[in-house]
Amino acid sequence: MSRRHQMSLTADLVALVHRPVVDPGPPPGFEPLTEQDHDERRAAVLAAHPKGHDLWIFAYGSLIWKPACEVDGQRHALLRGWHRRFCLRLLRYRGSVDYPGLMMALDVGGSCRGVAQRIPARYVEERLGQLLRRETSVKPASNLPRWMTVETEEGKTRALAFAINRKGPTYCGPHTLEETADILSKACGHWGTGAEYLMHTVAHLEDLDIHDRYLWRLQELVAERIKAASKGRALPIAAS
Length: 240
What we know:
By secondary structure, the chain is of the alpha+beta class. Helix content is about 30%, strand content about 30%.
């Protein structure tokens, strides 16, 4: 499906933000989950899921364009009572101590359009483990798994989503649109940049005919800031 709008934030502009960054490891106060922690977390989620049934995941950001596990189909879904917000502070991955970043999470209020992705019943235990390892890798957790009800064209569906842990140390209060653009136009970590994360998310939402006006305006502002900061510099050749 072709995109309905032409994005301002391009791969060439994103490449201008990238810089080599060494993985610093978990910041002070965080510790990786152990194998026992992972097993217990998966068991807790499975305890609330009917055995022998498919499991649905609500994806609203990077899980759309970079799934944590194999999924067998997806459908448009609307989640009420929660919305996308750049409220997760990053000092690792797509941010660093020198250039802190922000990542989207589900926060209370409003609504969010995304997709419901299906894991067939026979693969639930294995693939759920893969999903949880990516979304909840340290303690205290930045995101917490929650069962929620989403609305799809097939009716209401119970789905697993990951919402921000408001009591966690990575939760940061609301930033203005301009403040968020300032941060994302500079943030970079060993996984890449905040601008790249935003670009992929907006592009894939557009491909799904999900036009998020807030994210669309944000990618325009990030593009403007990168252009202003790089004035006079030649655009690098971005990898395809």
